[in-house]
Specification:
Length: 201
Amino acid sequence: MLEVKNLSKSFSSLCVIDNVSCKFKEGEIIALLGENGSGKTTMLKCLANIINIDNGEINYNNNQFIFINDKPNIFGDLNIKENLRCILSIYNQKINLNKYDKFITILGLENMQSVPLKYFSAGNLQRNKLLIALNLDWKYLFIDEPFSNLDDKGVSVFQTIFLNLKTQNKTILFSTHNFSSISDICDKSMSIKDGKIYYDD
């Protein structure tokens, strides 16, 4: 269980998150909706302890969590595996080649392995972003705009992966602008507006 109590975060005089409380169960997939600048990314960063909160509490029953932002997590001159090794080292983790080979095939990146990441298309950068997440150990994944820049096939692959992670009792909270195409995989969705969280029916 992840429980948020009375969370607030401001930047100077701008209140981005205003006294928010919510709970997330293990094994849930949750969509966080909102307009640009509404605070979706700030909320994810607060939950992942990337930025300090002003007030409130964030309580986990398991401290294994990661945040993957909407910008490519890459060193552009490196290839996929080299970049992944660098990211894993930040988390004091080592590459599992069996896991790497499995997911690079599922994500359709097996023919891109020797190409420097700076030459990747936006869609392949998204696939690489999820590849990073899949090669890290975590119970809670906070991921910013995972479905952007994907074609229909890519969206379908990501949906299948998310649902498989759910069966492993992993919790995924992601932001999105295009909820209609991925609503079927979500246990619930919530919108952020004027610093408040609203649960959607």
